[in-house]
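Crash report, auto-generated. Payload:
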Amino acid sequence: MKNRIQQDFTDILAKGIFTFLGYLNIVFVVVICFYLIISGIPAIFKVGFTDFIFGTRWASTAQDRAFGILPFILTSVYGTFGALLIGLPLGFFTSVYLAKFANKKVKSFVESTVDLLAGIPSVVFGFIGMLVLVPSIQYVFDLPDGSSLLAAILVLSIMILPSIIKVSIGAIQSVPYEYELGSLALGANRVETVYKVLVPAARRGISIAVVLGVGRAIGEAMAVMMVAGNVANMPGIFESVRFLTTAVASEMSYSSGLQREALFSIALVLFIFIMAINAVLNLVMKKRGKTK
Amino acid sequence: MNSLISVRNFNLYYGDNHALHNINMDIMEHEITALIGPSGCGKSTFLRCLNRMNDLIENVRLDGSIVYKGQELVNSKVNVSALRKSVGMVFQKPNPFAMSIYDNIAYGPRIHGVKNRSALDEIVESSLKKAAIFDEVKDRLKSSALGLSGGQQQRLCIARALAVEPEVLLMDEPTSALDPISTGKIEELTCELKKKYSIVIVTHNMQQALRISDKTAFFLLGDLVEMDSTDNIFTKPKDKRCEDYVTGRFG
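Recovered output after restart:
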């Protein structure tokens, strides 16, 4: 009898602890959300919404101060888009090759290399970019300084490769083998089968890969800070630029007053971007569930 | 009637496993040839050798000869794409592609170079009609083929195979995943199709072989035990094992 009560008690205790831990996660998210919103909104109003979002000049410590973050927004958008432009085809063709053409040895070798790539800390990407990429760009394009949007795009495109490759491989491999048989039996060759049947059937999974890549690229701070030059210019491919993420990171340590509040507002804008990307991701996933 | 495919002393090995033993068979034009036998007897494997789908299986070794319209298929450098266009295949599980009904049918012709829109429209319509499914889908050619019922999907797959104008249709247990009504429709369709095509069908359902086929070949453990007209196989089989199987004593 005593044993039974003890058991019940352990059950209840365990359940209580797990429930508490589960809700704790939600609490973290909610607290961060509210903190960002509450601390991010005032500066937007003080600066003025249009001046803040569409202002092209950021001079937070100058005599005549300006808090326009359009350069950061555009840099983040262009940087992400550029990274996708390079990283998506590269990652996509890699995953097609690995999923359908590579032999087992090559596949497992490349896959573990990709895993390794995913595990490299972003500061290392930044470091290599700084030492190799930036001087190369400076030399090749004959620029006074190689730190540029281009350097950031190249680093980001490599950083988003692992997530694009892994998700695309999964998507292509999950297409039923019967599709392949059906196509081959009609006289199609392997390449036609892969590109005309398997890839279209896997397009939802591949679009998830794209969204994940975008999420990774837009949220990255350390690596781009090290190679992008970190100057609040309007973006140009060879221009030194500053991203939304790096704008927050680079000034937070010495900021005060309205400047500090404006940094929170930048974080809020970034947060909204990432939430929007997540919403798109959820939408795509839901659609996928429906058709299956 | 002429022999369309002639198989002579054909052997197939999976690694060390001798899976098909010295098969000799003639498949006639405009007939339905049924391949029957218990699971694992090699009939599906044999079927796949008739359009070189066996190429997809690793570690397979063949010898002997399969001649289709003067072409040697065994270990030869035959144009596989042209062969499979001419010898179509329908699978056990309906496998329409994840695209519209129209695009499913147009897929084969497009692969083989038909680009003209109106030509494709015509092929799609006539193929669907040949597979007796046009009336059911004519109003939703642009919607996904995955929304069709299992039986409709299978007829769509038959239409897809017909769209590249084959001469032979290989059917690998085409009704085993379907309900009796859909099965009836496919059987009816198959009988209709033999006027224009030659059909080889693998089936586990002996009643089906009896209902639709002209010739029946009985496989057991990799041997072709007996092949004759379907009537003879079911009423006066020569081999005891064949008799036991068709009368339901094992299998």
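Post-recovery validation: The interface with chain A takes residues 51, 53, 56, 80-85, 88-89, 91, 93, 95-99, 107-108, 111-112, 144, 146, 157, 160-161, 164 of chain B (CB under 8 Å).
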